[in-house]
Amino acid sequence: AQSVTQPDIHITVSEGASLELRCNYSYGATPYLFWYVQSPGQGLQLLLKYFSGDTLVQGIKGFEAEFKRSQSSFNLRKPSVHWSDAAEYFCAVGVAGGSYIPTFGRGTSLIVHP
Amino acid sequence: DTAVSQTPKYLVTQMGNDKSIKCEQNLGHDTMYWYKQDSKKFLKIMFSYNNKELIINETVPNRFSPKSPDKAHLNLHINSLELGDSAVYFCASSLRQGAGEQFFGPGTRLTVL
Question: I need a labelling partner for A79 at 20 to 30 A (CA). Which of A5, B6, B30, B62 fits?
Fold first, then answer.
């Protein structure tokens, strides 16, 4: 079965600083990979996804992520963080077909200082 | 237009009561899900339905019973509520099984007193 690890429970950055949120997965084949964002009191919204092809994926709100098979990682990045980016970020991994249900990481809480 | 909607948004009730949460999606998706998010933000899959048929039923107490009257609706009924049921419950949908991206509802915060 697939699994996903987000090693950082909290990340604090200053507004305007760059950001990298870590995600490591465990799966035997090429997985489907996702990053979702959950703003306070809201549901989850998809930021970006990787299924195949170019390993650098662009998403909404200026986010990008890079799939590195050798490191089993799919880290999320943003060059300049805005105060409105403060939220909970979830990495998820899934497999193609079948009774596919993605597995979510425990989330990373992003705190943005002015 | 709300893609995935849930009602109610907040639900406060006493232990032992029975309550329902409703979910509707207007995306034309085939697959719907219920997740439970605990106080530490951990998301746990509870159920998944595909075209009104149950396909995933994780280890959930049988006090929880999902019902899908049609593929646009997936309701969650909870009997004999317990303190530990307090959480945020999210409904989600995807185009089909194995389709990848999920669309989430806004959540229902259930508080059991």
Answer: A5
A90, amino acid identity: F
Q: What pLDDT digit, counting tens, does each position of B36-84 carry?
A: 999 999 999 999 998 888 887 778 899 999 999 999 999 999 999 999 9
Domain that holds residue B61: 4-112
CB contact under 8 A, B43 and A45: no
Which 3 state secondary structure label does DSSP give A97?
A: coil
The reply to whether residue B41 touches residue A97, judged by beta carbons under 8 angstroms, is no
What's the structural domain count of chain B? 1
Instruction: Name the region of A53 (left: φ>0; alpha: ψ -120 to 50; beta: rest).
Output: left
The CATH number assigned to the domain holding B46 equals 2.60.40.10
CA distance A35 to A62: 13
How far is the alpha carbon of B9 from chain A, nearest alpha carbon, in Å? Answer: 10
Inter-chain residue contact B101 with A51, CB threshold 8 Å: no
A89 Cβ contact list (under 8 Å, min separation 6): A6, A21, A35, A36, A37, A38, A47, A76, A107, A108, A109, A110
